[in-house]
Amino acid sequence: MALIKCVECGKEYSDKADACPNCGATHVRKNIASETKKKGNKFVIGFVIVAIVIMIAIFNNNNNNEADKITYAELSDFEYVINEDGLTLEKYNGDSETLIIHPNYEIDGKSYNVILLEHTIFNGSDIKALYIPKTIETIYDDTLAYLDAEDDKIQIYYEGSKKRWKKVFKHYDSSVSNGGKSKAEQRGAAAAEKFNKMLGHEYNANDFEYHFNANIEDIK
């Protein structure tokens, strides 16, 4: 048993008593200690809650940064041909819904501008947003026709101006575009084009939304 001093009359009495036997004052120190303990518990709980909220915020921010991260497509995603003027991308083998084509790619220490997209490059792809660099000299309507709009419009981001786009965007004519191929190859291409049209493969401007003078940061 310990003795404590009454804060009112100064008399000593047992700490087990609820009040001073001399003046009846309550055991103030005991109450203070109890309140201090309660406040301490509340502080610990509050600290834990704040720490959890901060951790959740950091986690969500990291996830958002990963989701918002935009990168150019690797050359390994394409089948391509090197010619005197630059690089022709023939087939896209990736599975991304957002494709950002770099204006140039390095091959064996030499940089080549991407100047042409083969008209069937996107056949079988799931692309919903496409970034096209202004190094492209020609792009055909049939090239974009291979992109499936489904319910939403395909987003086309072109690095150049609208005026320049009108110069490089052309109607695909197999008889002209296949001029360098053999007669058998030309006949095969013409038959494939006719068959595709029977299946509804045809460029429709209403399936696309264009963004000119675009940067990759504009891609949504």
Radius of gyration: 37 Å
**Spans of 5+ residues with little confidence (pLDDT < 50)?**
none
What is the residue-averaged pLDDT?
80
What fraction of the residues are assigned to beta strands by DSSP? 15-25%
Based on helices, strands and strand pairing, what is the structural class? alpha/beta
- Characterize the overall form: rod-shaped
Tally of helical runs: 5
Strands side by side in the biggest sheet? 3-4-7-6
Number of strands: 12
Can you tell me about this structure?
With 220 residues, the chain is an alpha/beta fold. It has helices at residues 28-68, 141-145, 162-168, 174-177, 183-198, and strands at residues 3-5, 12-14, 78-82, 87-92, 98-100, 104-107, 110-117, 129-132, 139-140, 154-158, 169-170, 208-211. Strands 3-4-7-6 form a 4-stranded mixed sheet, with no helix packed on it. The protein is rod-shaped. It starts with a strand and ends in a 9-residue tail after the last strand.
Question: What layout of secondary structure does this protein have?
Answer:
Elements lengths: L2 E3 L6 E3 L13 H41 L9 E5 L4 E6 L5 E3 L3 E4 L2 E8 L11 E4 L6 E2 H5 L8 E5 L3 H7 E2 L3 H4 L5 H16 L9 E4 L9
In short:
This protein is α/β, with parallel strands linked by helices. The chain has five helices and twelve strands.
